[in-house]
């Protein structure tokens, strides 16, 4: 019986994002912190409009559309709670989110659009969303094995990882750990690959749909990868042999990364190469110097020329 094994993580050498700089973004010298003087109202508006523009005023899980002001049909949900300033600061200090990120309340990369039902499920720790770099996708995990959520388990949610306001992945990981704690008797389940989206838009007339988002995913992995399910978060092959297409079935198995310090560190370094990290860094920069000074500041922090 043949088994196909692959990892849910990708080697740093295979990533096609910006190269990691020697000076990590979370440990910048004094004077580089986010210092923009923006009113509370402006910050709140930026949070709302940033999420709405990214998520197209839809629940990222089921696709429900929101009307004016979104509520009560679709709501803007914080991943890390809006009152958790201490935790947010800890994530910045450990390099899990950029030091340039806005406050926990106002950072649009700390929020997603959810319908009222899935907002309650998310805040109630019935499911979590995991970023899987080998699939370049955010995956819905019904860890509580709730019956009404099972239809979404192991499917990709409508979040574009290349969007400048794509959610930071670390807040999702914190929410995942809380979900695991709420359901200590539940375990990780294997997920058949390739993955399909949680919903497909059938309203093509409005011009604002995300039809089939995340459906056609290239796993970008081969046989013989990282072994085994568990703490390392591997993907194991089927025990039932080849599929009907004649190709060995592959399964995604997500483990607890906090049980594997090396894996967690690898994930942290990968996060710092994602487009949303660069965008948050650029947004937090001040451009009060000369053109030459500003260009140098950009290259030093982001790693590429702005031209």
From TrEMBL:
Residues 222-236 have a biased composition (Gly residues). Residues 237-246 have a biased composition (Low complexity). This is HNH nuclease domain-containing protein. Residues 222-248 are annotated as: Disordered. Coiled coil: none annotated. Residues 59-129 form the HNH nuclease domain. Pfam families: HNH_2. InterPro entries: HNH_nuc (IPR003615).
């Amino acid at each position: 019986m043949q088994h196909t094994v692959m990892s849910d993580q990708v080697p740093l050498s295979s990533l096609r994002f910006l190269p990691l700089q020697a000076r990590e973004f979370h440990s910048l010298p004094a004077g580089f912190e986010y210092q923009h003087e923006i009113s509370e109202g402006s910050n709140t508006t930026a949070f709302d409009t940033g999420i709405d523009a990214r998520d197209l005023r839809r629940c990222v899980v089921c696709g429900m559309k929101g009307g004016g002001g979104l509520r009560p049909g679709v709501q803007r949900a914080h991943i890390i709670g809006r009152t958790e300033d201490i935790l947010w600061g800890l994530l910045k200090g450990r390099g899990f989110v950029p030091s340039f990120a806005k406050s926990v309340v106002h950072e649009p990369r700390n929020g997603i659009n959810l319908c009222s039902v899935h907002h309650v499920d998310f805040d109630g720790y019935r499911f979590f969303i995991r970023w899987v770099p080998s699939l370049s996708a955010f995956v819905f995990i019904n860890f509580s094995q709730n019956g009404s959520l099972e239809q979404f388990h192991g499917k990709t949610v409508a979040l574009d990882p290349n969007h400048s306001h794509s959610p930071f992945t670390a807040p999702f990981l914190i929410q995942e750990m809380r979900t695991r704690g709420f359901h200590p008797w539940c375990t990780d389940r294997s997920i058949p690959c390739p993955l399909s989206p949680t919903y497909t838009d059938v309203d093509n007339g409005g011009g604002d749909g995300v039809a089939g988002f995340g459906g056609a995913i290239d796993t970008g992995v081969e046989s013989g990868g990282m072994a085994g399910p568990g703490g390392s978060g591997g993907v194991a092959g089927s025990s039932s042999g080849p599929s009907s297409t004649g190709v060995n079935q592959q399964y995604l198995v997500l483990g607890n990364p906090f049980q594997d310090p090396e894996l967690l560190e690898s994930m942290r370094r990968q996060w710092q190469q994602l487009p949303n990290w660069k965008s948050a860094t650029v947004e937090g920069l001040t451009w009060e110097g000369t053109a030459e000074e500003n260009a140098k500041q950009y290259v030093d922090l982001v790693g590429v020329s702005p031209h």
